[in-house]
Amino acid sequence: MKKIKPFIFLLAAFTIINGCSDSSSDKKPLSENGLLINEFKANIPEDFHSFQYIELRGEKNYTIENTYLAVIDGDEKEEGIVDYCLDLNGVKTGANGLLLIKNMEEYNDLVDPETAVINEPLIKTYDDEDHEDGILEHDAITYALIKTKAEIKAGDDIDTDNDGKIDLPLEYEIIDSIGNFNGGDGVLYTSAVLSQSASDPDAATRFFNDLTPNSAKAWANGDIYEDPEKSDEKELAAEVLYDTLEASSNLPPNARLSPGSHNFKKAPFVVLNEIVSSDNKYIELLSNSSQSLDFVYLAVISGENNKASLIDLSGKQAKSSGIIVVKDLSAVILRHLETEIIEGDLSILSPDKSSILLVYSAEPISSDFKFIEGETLKLPENSVLLDSIGWGDNCYLDLKIVKDYKIDGATRYKDNRMASKSAWTYGSLAGNDYIPGSSKNLPANGFVTPGEINISEETSMLVKPAVETARSTIQSPDADDMAFWIHPSDSEKSMVIATQKNAGYSIYDVSGNTLLDNLPDTNRFNNVDVIYGIDLNGTQTDIALFTDRNTNKFAIYKITESSPYIIDITDPENSDELFDAEEPGEDTAYGEGVYKSPVTGKVYAFATQNGTWNTAQFELVVNQDKIGWKKIRTITLEADDDDEHAEGIVIDQEYGKAYIAQEGVGVYVMDAEPGAEPFDISLDENDLIAEEGDFNLKKDLEGMTIYYKADGAGYVFVSSQGNNTYAVFDRTPNGVKNNYIKSFAIVDNMEGIDGTQHTDSIDVTNMAVGSKFLNGAFIAQDGTDTSNTIGDTGTNFKWVKWEDIGTGLGDIDFSSNYNPRNPVNRR
Fold first, then answer.
1. pLDDT of residue 122
2. Do residues 555 and 509 make contact, with C-beta atoms less than 8 angstroms apart?
3. pLDDT by residue (tens digit) across 547-566?
4. Domain assignment of residue 696, given as a range
5. What CATH number does the domain containing 523 carry?
6. Which residues contact residue 368 at a Cβ distance below 8 angstroms, ignoring those fewer than 6 apart?
7. Cα separation of 6 and 154, whole Å?
């Protein structure tokens, strides 16, 4: 973000309403200094930044003294700049203890009348590029309540020597603070650091029942759910539901922002996941990896007499898959290594009339507690409703299924943890299969999965990883892209070369073991590809080509089968920057793909530019034992009005077709041969083989790869990051559109390796990769790798046997003899 111009904050610019009576202040401290940061929303869908806000919490009618609310930048070259500042001296909290800083026109229908409100004219949507993120950035940022007699104002540099410590001329105290990094980068002025499973927080909420200052454990955070069913962009921007997939591990179910009202209570993340109400009765729960179930109760309520069967789950704990099965005493459920199996009385669970509740209560719930009073659901005092679903008469739940067929089963879609009926498929069963016409069943051939990972809304084809890589040992790793390197004679010596962004690169053997983690210089390697057989001084050499976001160049390495595995051979004399870039590391080189022409033998690399429509093609230039490049054409992606960048690129080495995935738009196809006279070209909607939204493709479209069959057929794969699936298209001769076949998901193998989420990149090979992958392998980046340690998440890569994917595609011929060193010219 370009920086906000300094401004002097004037208290007279505020209109303060609610809770500002002349009654004496309550001096009883909420914390030692009587005030805490309570909630904020910074990143707003569609850039309607008038929906930003910050909420504070203190004692009722508490008068604030000598305190500033400061939002402090931590990005490179902006360390310590105060982006926003509010002088709170003399301001009172409301009768409920809350103080909300917001735009005058927003959230008025949600604000508690007892909340004090500051209508901040600077919280708005700006038209100029200096304020493209609104007043509150979504980068490395610290929210701090600073008690000091020194004056602080927006534009001040309060870390003049950029050492990560606040420099004020007078004594000061940080009453409370919270912050988040910019993708792992930047400086924070707090030890309370927010983190989450993917991206950086859109918003964060302090738990109602945790008043610990300067503590990340007192907070939950995440992205805000962008409901596609919202009628317009502004309504979507006002969304207050947390996206449970991109969030902190301690986010409770049903969590939502509450601007101007008190927040949700701390509770474990446990939701209902699958229910079978006839024959082999069971109720499956889903939680975070290794989540404790202490104080969690499962209640099954009969619609016949409102009688409840109550099961106390205290003392139980989820394993790494997060799946817990509560089965009826007479049911038979296959025990899986990473599934917790619990027995309970589910005899009153019925396909006709049932309500199922998950309740968190720090106080014991009596077995005879009446959950239904008249026609109203009642919860025990001081309890939290985690999740619920029900059907039939006398079901008084918000989530109620109304259908004229029996509900033998109900399945929450894989990775959809939202509290909504749209998160479920349900209906009548024949064995484990949902009956078409008697179920709300979007995926083809949907089925229940007792003790296993559920089907996705977009697909019922599920595959399991056989191998996963370790996480990088370099600080702040972020596994991103990878490429197979196939050894010319011994598949056991093949390798995977992968990027870790700020943590450099990693090399793995065919069992997924780390051969090397390395961070050369200050690079930011983003993508990588392998090219076979380049002539260097008469020697056929395989190379790995990276894009480096810091230098805005390629980094080119020679591959060796032994340590150090790759050796830098980038030619400094022929290594110009790839794109015109104003901001280093931001609008620089991003994605890439390589192509060795079967027509001319020339070698090319395509690259995309972050934050723009721009793509370019470069010819690699050999200079003795070094390699540089020269740009031969630019490619502009024009299929959409939004300035969406592309990242995923793959080139068919036989047909010479380049596929480019533009986020928010779709997948283009073009001729990879530049022709005799290279020229600048533009691609538009006529060049798309698939648009985002079609074929189960959901934002963002990321990695792509090609599986080559021996006869020129095969498959093009696209990573659909928005729903954690992989779309498969056929690979067809030149000039023919690529037809969509189906999608699949990679799920937990129930033996200690979890599935994939938020996949950035993929690769596939038909060649043997060691003894475990004799028919080839598919590899995918996992943006949320989990373990048996609660809250422990990271990134790594998952490997799937090719036959598991091929069989699901209806293809049982694993005999492809395609060799990437000797592709056939099929142009």
1. 94
2. no
3. 999 899 999 999 999 999 99
4. 467-808
5. 2.120.10.30
6. none
7. 6
